[in-house]
Write a structure and sequence with these properties.
The complex is a heterodimer of chains A (227) and B (383).
Chain A lengths: L3 H13 L6 E5 L5 H10 L2 E6 L2 H9 L4 E3 L2 H4 L8 E7 L8 H11 E9 L4 H10 L23 H10 L2 E9 L5 E3 L7 H4 L2 E8 L17 H5 L1
Parallel strand pairs in A: 1-2, 1-4, 2-3, 4-5
Antiparallel strand pairs in A: 5-8, 6-7, 6-8
Chain B lengths: L2 E7 L4 E7 L3 E2 L5 E2 L2 E8 L9 E5 L11 E2 L4 E2 L6 E2 L4 E2 L4 E5 L31 H14 L5 E7 L1 H12 L4 E7 L7 H15 L17 H15 L2 H7 L19 H16 L2 H13 L6 H7 L8 E7 L7 H13 L3 E7 L13 H18 L2
Parallel strand pairs in B: 6-11, 6-12, 9-10, 12-13, 13-14, 14-15
Antiparallel strand pairs in B: 1-2, 2-5, 3-4, 5-11, 7-8
Helix pairs in contact in B: 1-2, 3-4, 3-7, 4-6
Classes of the chains: A alpha/beta (227), B alpha/beta (383).
Chain lengths: 227, 383
């Protein structure tokens, strides 16, 4: 779906978001190279799901725990909060029900890492505007009729969906088409224009205990309780 | 006094371990005072005894998993999988394969003589379960002084035994490879077994299982049972590909009940040759053992009881797309339960039209998965 170099970059960034000794599920794990990397470098307990038989086979042969199956049907088998991180790398745009998948990610994992190609990148906008044809880029290299990508969305669209679903964006990293990395939140750049690929670290809102100050002290006195 | 003795059997070209006064209690409540297990080993056990793999055979299998089978005078049933430089490499692993309790190639079963008597068990043999088979295997592993098996591997009824190992003796196995099995024997599978058993029991030569005394063999019944079962091991596509409507040694149909079609001739041959190597009573007892296999209600609870700390088993579950006897759906139930409990499990569904028999046939992806899984896990535990 992307060239090797940028996928490796993508993986290194994903790795940078993950703590050591975590339990990780990678959805659409391919031959398991990313989870293999995370297992080695972060001493993580890893598991993958892969739809393609040959790729799942290669991963299993490396000794990785991989379930050969379809993430859109098979995520229900995982228990609530059974992973620290659930990774969905470069796959959300190919899912039939992206919203449902996002809900599932944060049901299974306490945090989700989602990366995707940004359809709002200036090159894509320019192609559509100038030529009036569906854009073909490095990150989205397919013709409209044979693309596995069925849901195109931009950085802004994704941020809005997170807001609507009450998902907290803990971190967001953008990559330009030249592979330059920047923080989407704190950047002065027009991120939706220059982000070629985006990586998001997501979680649900953690509600902190609310302390209510009260001047009323009646319950602190024994007499008040007795009476 | 109970006694254990390993003997070499020249005629059967295998080892037989004999347990006397063993007071072996079966699930049914019956007790076997004495019993014996016929087994073969391949490769050699390493010093730390950490490279032993137990292979559990299917319904009509035997201990001759590899090498020469003296009963059939053919290669062992999984010779393509087990041997030097094969996917289960006997240069690296010490492979043990034993004939199941209730079987008919050397282990205690209906065909064997009763204790200190000249008559055989026949129809009076006690009912056997998969759990009993595994309990007997554990006794064999004890005799071989192996504390922990590196792997238990099996397809079909062998998969049932592998699963039973993981439930009853989780601390004694490192990995399991479960191929084309299920948590339970389904109603459809019981139905096919029942038709097979009825074929045997309605053969006038069966004599309620005591055909040995009558000096007869229920050949017709057993061969019909085998023919029915054989259909369930194939798939419609494979049958069509292999036979279609092709005629057997003739150009036109006979307008009679000869084996006009190749498929008929093939099934008749399968039935005939099966009778030469298998005991009809064993077939009854072993099909029954499979029918009684059911972990569907208890599996999850049992795994929960065997908590994560005690369960470092790495599971590999494999199914085949065209297997309608033990379909993917049923294999996946095991995987789903394991995944739900965050256990170490891998699952692979292999696309093939060869049906349930795929695990015995040439399926390169099966070889790659088994070899890769076993060797990478072996490396991980021996680093």
């Amino acid at each position: 779906m992307n060239n090797i170099k940028s996928i490796r970059k993508d993986w290194d960034l994903i790795e940078s978001l993950i703590g050591e000794n975590s339990r990780i599920l990678d959805i659409g794990c391919g031959e398991g190279d990313l989870i293999g990397q995370l297992e080695k470098k972060l001493n993580a307990q890893v598991h993958g799901i892969e739809k393609d038989q040959e790729m799942a086979l290669k991963g299993i042969s490396k000794g990785l725990n991989i379930t050969h199956g379809d993430a859109e049907k098979d995520l229900s088998q995982y228990a609530n909060q059974s992973f620290d991180y659930v990774i969905l790398s470069q796959t959300l745009q190919a899912m039939l029900e992206p919203k449902k998948i996002l809900t599932e990610l944060l049901r299974i994992g306490s945090k989700a890492i989602v990366s995707f190609p940004n359809f709002g990148h200036w090159k894509i906008r320019l192609q559509l505007m100038l030529f009036g044809k569906m854009p073909i880029t490095e990150g989205l290299p397919y013709s409209w009729y044979d693309t596995p990508n069925i849901h195109f969305f931009t950085l802004k669209d994704f941020e809005n969906l997170c807001k609507e679903m009450h998902i907290v964006i803990e971190d967001s990293i953008g990559l330009t088409s030249k592979g330059k990395q920047f923080s989407i939140n704190n950047s002065l750049l027009p991120s939706n224009l220059v982000t070629h690929e985006a990586i998001f670290l997501l979680s649900y809102k953690n509600f902190e205990l609310i302390k209510i100050k009260s001047t009323n002290k009646i319950f602190t006195k024994n007499s008040a309780i007795i009476n | 006094m109970s006694n254990i003795e390993i003997k070499k059997n020249k005629e059967l070209d295998c080892n037989i371990v004999e347990f006397t006064n063993a007071n072996f209690k079966l699930v049914s409540g019956s007790v076997l005072e004495n019993f014996k297990i016929a087994f073969k080993t391949f490769g050699s056990l390493n010093q730390s005894k950490s490279n032993a793999i137990l292979i559990c055979h299917a319904l009509t299998g035997d201990q001759y998993v590899s090498g020469h089978n003296p009963i059939t005078e053919r290669d062992g049933w999984w010779s393509r999988m087990v041997g030097p430089d094969k996917p289960i490499d006997t240069n690296k692993f010490f492979v043990i394969c034993s004939n199941v309790l209730g079987g008919c190639s050397g282990s205690t079963g209906p065909k064997e003589k009763k204790d200190n008597k000249d008559i055989i068990h026949g129809g009076s043999f006690p009912s056997i379960t998969i759990q009993d088979m595994v309990s007997a295997q554990v006794k064999l592993i004890d005799v071989l002084k192996i504390d922990k098996l590196f792997s238990v591997v099996g397809g079909s009824m062998g998969a049932m035994q592998a699963l039973q190992w993981s439930v009853d003796f989780p601390n004694r196995i490192r990995t399991i490879i479960h191929i084309a099995g299920a948590l339970k024997h389904s109603a459809q599978n019981i139905a096919f077994h029942e038709v097979g058993r009825q074929a045997i029991m309605s053969d006038p030569n069966w004599h309620k299982g005591n055909y040995d005394e009558e000096k007869s063999i229920p050949e017709r019944g057993l061969s019909v049972a085998r023919m029915i079962a054989h259909i369930t091991y194939l798939s419609e596509d494979a049958m069509h590909r292999k036979f279609g409507r092709k005629l057997q040694s003739r150009d036109i149909i006979s307008f009679g009940f000869d084996a006009d079609f190749q498929i008929e001739s093939y099934l008749r041959y399968q039935g005939r040759s099966f009778v030469e190597r298998f005991d009809a009573n064993s077939y009854l007892y072993l099909t029954r053992a499979m029918d009684y296999f059911d972990h569907s209600e208890t599996y999850r609870k049992t795994l929960e009881f065997i908590n994560n700390d005690n369960d470092d088993i790495n599971y590999l579950v494999i199914s085949f797309t065209s297997d309608w006897l033990f379909p993917t759906r049923e294999n996946k139930e095991i995987v789903e339960t394991l995944n739900n409990l965050s256990r170490n499990v891998s699952f692979l569904e292999i696309e093939t039209d060869k049906g349930h028999d795929s695990f015995l046939l040439d399926e390169p992806d099966l070889d790659i998965a088994m070899k890769g899984f076993l060797e990478s896990n072996y490396r991980n535990t021996h680093e």
